[in-house]
């Protein structure tokens, strides 16, 4: 674990190792026996540390990297692996990613690690960053890596306040032009159909999901126009 082992505060050391990328350790938790993913040696992961971003902190770093790696079909996933895998290796952990199949329950992990709760849109809402945050990977730790992390108390869940509880009008629920958020889930097919239409191309595909944008929480952390277009192209394309 090199410099990270010697550090008095290993979680801060992970943060320092990720810092040039704009990614951050989002929090970690000790897993329940039998409910964690298996490591390559067949044992259950003992703890999981999520890696992600608040606002668009990583965007300029990713964009610069992407310019030097043209032609990738999933550039953000590739960059995430290029950043997270080396940090994970120095810790003696294993990394998994949101796009890995079968899908890992990243949002359930985030609720355990950070105490965040789901908004009516399905995305988890953060009291400070609102809907403007995401997850790029997770570090799975064995017993040994957990010990080397100092066996310190898990970081979460530190966030007690759930913004949606005090949000009487819930503007996120009435902003979608095709009412894709029905209360019984996300009508992804209706959304996609709209995104492919002329009206969708000149609205959501250009300036982002109007439902996400209607939330008043964390607006100053809203993604830049080109980051919004990138995510919409990845979803709607
Ligand atoms: C499949 C998927 C989708 C599908 C289907 C979503 C659905 N109806 O379930 C589609 C393609 C539609 C989708 C869309 C989006 N997604 Co998505 N998606 C995923 C993915 C890859 C798997 C979800 C899953 O089934 N996991 C397996 C189950 C077992 O895990 P889970 O934690 O229990 O899953 C929870 C979610 O399914 C959630 N859920 C249920 N309904 C919905 C609806 C929406 C819209 C979302 C976001 C979540 C959600 O409830 C489950 C229980 O907590 C996750 C990454 C991951 N590996 O989890 C991202 C993820 C959930 N998506 C995410 C995001 C940001 C989006 C988009 C906003 C992308 C964008 N455009 O920028 C859009 C939202 C729609 C929009 N109009 O913009 C983020 C959410 C971050 C957060 N703040 O919570 C995740 C975690 C990816 C990431 N890298 O951070 N997504
Ligand atoms: S608009 Fe209100 S209900 Fe919707 S996500 Fe934001 S805080 Fe929650
Ligand atoms: S992207 Fe547009 S159509 Fe899709 S859910 Fe958001 S507001 Fe609705």
TrEMBL record:
InterPro entries: 4Fe4S_Fe-S-bd
Positions of the 4Fe-4S ferredoxin-type domain: 155-186
Protein name: Ferredoxin
Species for this entry: Hoeflea alexandrii
């Amino acid at each position: 674990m090199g410099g990270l082992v010697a550090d008095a505060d290993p979680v801060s050391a992970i943060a320092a190792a990720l810092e040039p990328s704009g990614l951050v350790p989002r929090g970690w938790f000790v897993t329940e026996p039998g409910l964690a993913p298996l490591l390559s040696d067949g044992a259950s992961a003992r703890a999981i540390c999520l890696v992600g971003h608040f606002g668009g902190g990583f965007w300029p770093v990713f964009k610069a990297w992407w310019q030097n790696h043209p032609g990738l079909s999933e550039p953000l996933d590739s960059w995430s692996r290029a950043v997270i895998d080396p940090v994970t290796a120095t810790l003696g952990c294993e990394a998994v990613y949101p796009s890995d199949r079968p899908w890992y329950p990243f949002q359930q992990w985030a609720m355990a690690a950070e105490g965040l709760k789901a908004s009516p849109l399905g995305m988890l809402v953060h009291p400070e960053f609102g809907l403007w945050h995401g997850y790029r990977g997770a570090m799975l730790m064995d017993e040994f890596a957990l010990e080397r992390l100092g066996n310190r108390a898990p970081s979460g869940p530190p966030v007690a306040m759930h913004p949606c509880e005090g949000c009487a009008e819930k503007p996120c629920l009435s902003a979608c032009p095709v009412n894709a958020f029905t209360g019984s889930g996300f009508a992804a097919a209706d959304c996609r159909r709209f995104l492919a239409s002329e009206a969708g191309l000149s609205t959501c595909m250009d300036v982002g999901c109007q439902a996400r944008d209607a939330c008043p929480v964390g607006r100053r952390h809203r993604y830049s126009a080109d980051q919004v277009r990138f995510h919409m192209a990845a979803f709607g394309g």
